[in-house]
Amino acid sequence: MREITRRAAVALGLVGLTAFAGVKVKDRIAPLTESLSEKPSLFESDGFQYFTVVDKDPDILPADFSLRIEGLVNQEITLTLADLQKLPRTRLVRDFQCVTGWRVKNVPWEGVLLRDILGAAGVQGSATALKFLSSDGAYTESLTLEQGMRKDVLVADALFDKAITSKHGGPVRLFVGPMYGYKSLKWLSAIEVTKEVEPGYWEVRGYDVDAWVGKSNGRSDVPT
Ligand SMILES: Nc1nc2c(c(=O)[nH]1)N[C@H]1C(S)=C(S)[C@@H](COP(=O)(O)O)O[C@H]1N2
Ligand SMILES: [Mo]
Questions:
Q1: 168 CA closest ligand 1 atom index
Q2: Domains (ranges, CATH) in the chain?
Q3: Residue 82 burial by CB count (10 A; 0-12/13-18/19+): exposed, middle or buried?
Q4: Entry pTM
């Protein structure tokens, strides 16, 4: 399954294929998705495949990090890494599943529940959704407010029990436990509380906004 490209995964969603017989599908659907700006990715020693959509990733020193909570909140707030690390901490061990087919089993993540950060800013009654922004200036993601309040959605500052490396989106990235990896935005810089869901970077390019592992993108959730 590793040969399945991101283009193929997008196209699976576009054409709604439910069965996946092999890499030949890639050839059949490639013309549909030629315009996507996919970047090559490499497997890391930890089993992750490294993804970015920009030419130069951000390299943020912990001391320079800040996270802004804005939009439909009672009080816009900006948290430093130290502010974030004063909040109650949660550690989750989950499989990390990319929609293109690779999976890393039992990955430990740690950080602060997104719901606690939203609570600190105070969400207004008219809000139904969240938009996440990255310091890379290009990638965005979305969740419904209800999804964002789940107890398996983290603003994470640790991966494999260490500070998150720059490559993996550190100092702070999102981790959305029950959804495909594309929801777990790297280099998190701001969270905007919004009236409605605004589809994220890959979502406007064909991925399912509803990214529950095993449900979306027309593939079965078979580990590779
Ligand atoms: N900013 C940003 N976040 C991102 C991506 C990206 O390209 N840019 N790729 C997503 C996808 S598709 C996956 S599977 C994971 C991969 O995480 P990794 O690069 O740490 O392995 O990050 C997600 N978050
Ligand atoms: Mo992914």
A1: 20
A2: 61-205 (3.90.420.10)
A3: exposed
A4: 0.83
